[in-house]
Structure formats: structure tokens, C-alpha cells
Amino acid sequence: MLIKKPSDIQPSEITPESVYRRRREFLRDSAALLAGGAMLPPLAFGQQGDALKAAAPPGLTRTPPATWWEDKFETIAPAPSEEPFYTAESLTPYQDVTRYNNFYEFGMDKSDPSNRSSAFQTDPWSIEISGEVAKPGTYHLEDILKPHDLEERVYRLRCVEAWSMVIPWIGFPLADMIRRFEPTSRAQYVEFETIIQPDTMPGIRSPFAIVDWPYREGLRMDEAMNELTFMAVGLYGSFLPAQNGAPIRLVVPWKYGFKSIKSIVRMHFRETRPNTTWNDLQANEYGFYANVNPAVHHPRWRQDTERRLPQTLFSRQIIPTRLFNGYEEQVAHMYQDMDLARHY
Amino acid sequence: MTSAASRARPGLGLLKPAVFSASLLPLAWLFWRIAANDLGPDPAQELAIATGEWTLRLLLITLSLTPLRQLSGRPEFVRVRRMAGLFTLFYAAIHFFVWMSLLLAFRWSAIGEELVERPFISMGFASLLILIALGITSTRAMVRRMGKNWKRLHRLIYPAAILGVIHLSWILRTDLGEAVLYGSILTLLLGYRLWRWLTRSA
Ligand code: HEM
Questions:
Q1: What's the whole-model pTM score?
Q2: Which residues pair with B201 in a beta bridge?
Q3: Alpha carbon distance A315, A319 (integer Å)
Q4: H/E run at residue A94
Q5: In angstroms, rounded to a whole number, what is the distance separating the alpha carbons of residues A195 and A108?
Q6: What ipTM was reported for this prediction?
Q7: Domain A63-335, CATH 3.40.50.720 — does that match?
Q8: Nearest to A277 by CA among A113, A131, A98, A102
Q9: How confident is the model at residue B37 (pLDDT cuts 50, 70, 90)?
Q10: Cβ under 8 Å to A: B residues 132-171
Q11: How far apart are CA B183 and CA B47, in angstroms?
Q12: Cβ–Cβ gap A309/B41 under 8 Å
């Protein structure tokens, strides 16, 4: 079961929910509660000064992949109130963040990942660290997470398909994790791989799939070490659902969403640029860098504007797309001498 | 068969109204989903996909009517062919309008750029232009006026369908299942015609 009934919720899961919320979200959640007929006592909204910016609606909290996750989520540092680790733009509601996904291992429709991922196994989970590092090995996820304090970050997510969301992630900086494995001076790039679980991933079993699984992505080392680059293990104060890349995924907010690889099982440090899935599939469409850029159109989608989700037919937010998705100040220096139209 | 004789067949008077209503069902379903707020967080994209798929389905249905008539010997199939073709155009027009209005917000310069710069859009547009030409010339008066040329012009329905499937296959990103499905049906329908043509002239 993916979504818990309110009666199943453990007290420890409720903790992150007793938090500050904006009135709009409170109203929406109240409506959801009423609709579900749940009779939870009102939570103490706005009680804690140092609370998270956002929490999953009561009743929709995820089941933790294993019990140790609950302890890990006990203390989460809330996002600061200023850019770049936070944006005051309206959050995309939890229901949309978790039901409108691209995760092609589960299918091509946006609803496939949430509808077809209930069998996905995220425990036990380990990540293989290999290549140009002093401490290679296969590490259990609990050990990988142990030294890291979780924090919240509210980032814009811009998909190459010209839609975007604002998502409160829970996780830790990738740079902190990478340092622990002590990359050598020859580590110029880091390559990531998504798990292959054919039994639980219908998209992988399709006879007409044209992707050479596993899904692969990569970053240049300076991109990986950038302060914005984030490893997420949760969203909205709760554990990552399968469709959002459970149990651990990358978040690179200044790049198109496909760079933010999900359900990671391997990180390989290397001297040469790795192949990446979309680039292999259509090199003229998907570049290695994939930096958000309103001036460089993709052969399928123009990129000068984006549809900020959720939309309704009567209130469509079509907003201008910003260079580097609005994170120019933090990242532009890494691409100073590059022709962004050529290195798309 | 004269039209007087066909009118005499029971139930035939209902054929056209029935097909007409059935062709409106997908649209009614979309309106229902709009009203019920069931299109998800990106309704514009959802509508574009749904109307595109119905355009292609109706196009393939239209193309299957002549073979069905020939295989079954029942003339009813061909009697609704023009209506099916016009409904194809109708859904294509909605599809196009959804794209112009909801996805591109009537930014005319962007619309112009997209039509020439995105290959998958150009393919869809070429297909739409054919459908419009066929729609305009679908009246009885036009059939009479154009004589032999009418048949020639209306064979453009084949490239229109092929362009539609190419348009679709360029949209699909990781799995070609949908294009294989529609492409196979189209291959069957065109293959049947080719086979008849070859066996007839032999
Ligand atoms: C100027 C004319 C046209 C334009 C601008 C256009 C544009 C589009 C767009 C923007 C989409 C959504 C693409 C996406 O999911 O990213 C789409 C989908 C689709 N279109 Fe068109 N189209 C046109 C004509 C046609 C015609 C004539 C047909 C059929 C013969 C057609 C069949 C389809 C189909 C089947 C889809 C669904 C793809 C899917 O299942 O994801 N289109 N079209």
C-alpha cells in the first residue's frame, strides 16, 4: 500500500506535519480532509518557529521504506526564507507533484509512474561508488545517509517539455556526499545510474521501448559540487514516493528535469564525459549540459515560456523561462567561456 | 442501388444520426472531463494529446470504410464515409485550436515559428492542410464539378494519414508502441488497397 489511511499514521510521521503553512494550503488540506471524511484533530499550524515550509497533506504521508527512515526524518532543517535555496513562488501541490511525473521505466503517460509503481522495491537499497575515488565500494543507503543532516530546499523544476513546478525537497548537498568518497584529481565527471527492476517497471518490459536501460545521467565535477546540487530523499517533509525517484535522487535545479536522475544505484567517477540516456537517444535534441535556456529551443519544444503547474483551463500561468531557471547567479560562472547554443 | 431502394431498408434512416452522435462522444467526454476537473495539472497538454489521438483514430476509421464495404458488401459503410471524413477534420481543427490557444496563447510570431521550425508540427500542419482541402471539396456539387480530379485529389487522404503517424512517432520519446499500433493499422488499410489495385490490373 502506498498511501496510508489517516488511522495508519504513526505519531513519528505526523511530526513533520505540525508545521507552519500558508493559509491557502491549510484550506486545501482541510478540504482534502473533509473529502476523505477523516476526523484528525486540527494540527498545530504555525506553532513551531523553525518548522518546514511545507508538509504533505495529512492522510497522504508515505510509508517509510524501512523503519530507520523515520528516525532520519525526525529532524529536518527548514529551508531558509531567501533565494537560492528557497523561492516564494507558489508551491505545486503535493497531489500534482506526485501524480504528474516522467519516469519512463514505469510508462510514458504522466500518470503511469504513480499508477504503475506500487510494487517498486526500495529496501534494501545500496549505491555502488566506483571509479576515480579513494573509497570505492557498495554502500547501504542507511550508511550513506548517516552522516548527513537532512534539510529542506524549495526549488523550481523546469522540464524540457516546457512545464514547470515548485517543489519542497528534503535531502542534502551532493557535494558533502562526494567529499566522503574522496575523488581523485582524475575525477572530472560523475556518472549516475537508475536501478533496473524489470519485475516492477512495466516500461522496461515494453517490446517497443527504444531506450537502452538503465537510465544514465552525468554531471561535470564542478556542477556536481555546486552548492545548489542536491540529493533528495523526500519531498513535502515526507519520504519520496516511487514515482518521484525513491529512495534517493538527484536535483539539479538549473538544468532540465531529465538531468535530475531518479532512484540512483550507481555513481561512477571518471575522467571522460559519460554517455547519458537522452543524449544517446537523440544527440541533436538533448545535450549533455541541458541548462535551462529560453534562447535555445529544443527541436520539439520552444523554451522561451513555461506552463507553471498546476493549471486549469481558465487560469493558465504561462510565464517567461529564465536563463539557468533563475539560478544564474549561482551557476553562470561555470559556463563562462562556453557557447550555450552549441553546448546545449 | 437507387436511393429510393436504400431508404426502404429498415433502420437506415437512423444510420447517419447514429454515426453523427457517436462521433461527438469523444468531444462530449472531453467536455465532461473539463467540467469534472479531471484533466490533471496540465490540462492544455492533455487536451492536445486527446484531440490529436481522436483525429488520427477517426482518420483511420474513415480509411477503413471502403475496405469494409468491399469485404462485407454492405453499402452502409460508404454512406457515412463523408461524415467520418468531416469529423476527422472537425477534431483536427479543435486539436489545432487547442495548440494555438492553450499551448501558445495566440502568440502569432511563436505560432509561425513553430509551424516551420518544429518538424513534428510541420508534419501535423501538412496533414491538417490536406484535411481542409478535402473538407472544402467534399460537397456533392464539388464532386460533380471536379469529375475525375476529385478522386485524384481525395487520394491525398493517404499521405494525410501517413503524415499523421509520422507526427505521432516524432512525439513519442522512449517507447514507440503507440506509433507501431497506429502504423500497423494504417499499413493494413493501405496494403489492402495496394493488393486490390495489383490484383485488378494483373
Ligand atoms: C497544425 C497541425 C497540428 C499541430 C500544430 C499539432 C500539434 C500537436 C501537439 C503540440 C501535440 C502534443 C505533443 C506532445 O505531447 O508533446 C500533438 C499530439 C498529437 N497529434 Fe497533432 N498537431 C497537428 C495536426 C495533427 C493531425 C492532422 C493529426 C492526425 C492526423 C495529429 C495527431 C496527433 C496525435 C495522435 C497526437 C497524440 C500524441 C500522443 O499520444 O502523445 N495532429 N499534436
A1: 0.85
A2: none
A3: 12
A4: helix A94-97
A5: 17
A6: 0.84
A7: no
A8: A102
A9: confident
A10: 170-171
A11: 22
A12: yes
